[in-house]
Design brief:
A six-stranded parallel sheet has the order 3-2-1-6-7-8, sandwiched between helices. Strands 4-5 form a two-stranded antiparallel sheet. The mean pLDDT is about 95. A hairpin with a 5-residue loop joins strand 4 and strand 5 (about 80-85). The termini are far apart. The protein has helices at about 10-20, 25-35, 55-65, 85-95, 115-125, 140-145; strands spanning about 1-10, 40-50, 70-75, 75, 80-85, 105, 125-130, 145-150. It is an alpha/beta fold and about 160 residues long.
Length: about 160
């Protein structure tokens, strides 16, 4: 049985599925698919904390599925822009857990991760699977992965299902 480490860039997945499909990502189906016949060595969902009750419910759902949820505060700047990404944190965790896994699964379409994917493939000889919205995922990340799995209907909640990420 292969071992797997799973990492989810929650904000990237939320915004890309919303933009492309006007639907939410189905974390239960994703978990079932990404971990099928594999031993999970690590599973982390990286999210932004806006301190809201619906978001806390969503985070508890992720925990119940099997994810550790790491939160970073949402920062609203004086100019109205916002800050709240986990790129460095995701990269550090992937680098830490890749040596313990046969397969690394990354759910994100962020092209900043292409260098990370190349590094762990070369250094640790792990297979890397990337899940993302095809039209909104960086071509460089898609090329870097051993396998790119496009987010489509089976990985989306039914239309009208409300979830706050």
């Amino acid at each position: 049985m292969d071992s797997v480490a799973v990492f989810v860039d929650v904000q990237n997945i939320y915004y890309t599925t919303r933009q492309r499909f006007s639907r939410h990502f189905d974390y239960n189906n994703f978990w079932a698919e990404a971990t099928r016949d594999r031993q999970v060595v690590k599973a982390t969902a990286f999210a932004i904390d806006r301190d809201d009750e619906r978001q806390r419910q969503f985070q508890n759902i992720l925990r119940a599925i099997g994810f550790e949820v790491k939160l970073r505060p949402y920062i609203q700047r004086n100019d109205g822009s916002a800050k709240g990404d986990w790129d460095v944190g995701i990269a550090l965790d992937v680098l830490e857990y890749a040596p313990l896994a046969d397969v690394v699964v990354l759910a994100s379409g962020d092209g900043d991760f292409d260098v990370l994917v190349h590094r762990i493939r070369d250094k640790h000889q792990v297979s890397v699977e990337v899940y993302g919205v095809a039209e909104l995922s960086a071509a460089s990340l898609i090329r870097a992965a051993d396998k790119f799995i496009p987010i489509k209907d089976h990985l989306l909640l039914a239309a009208g299902t409300v979830r706050r990420e």
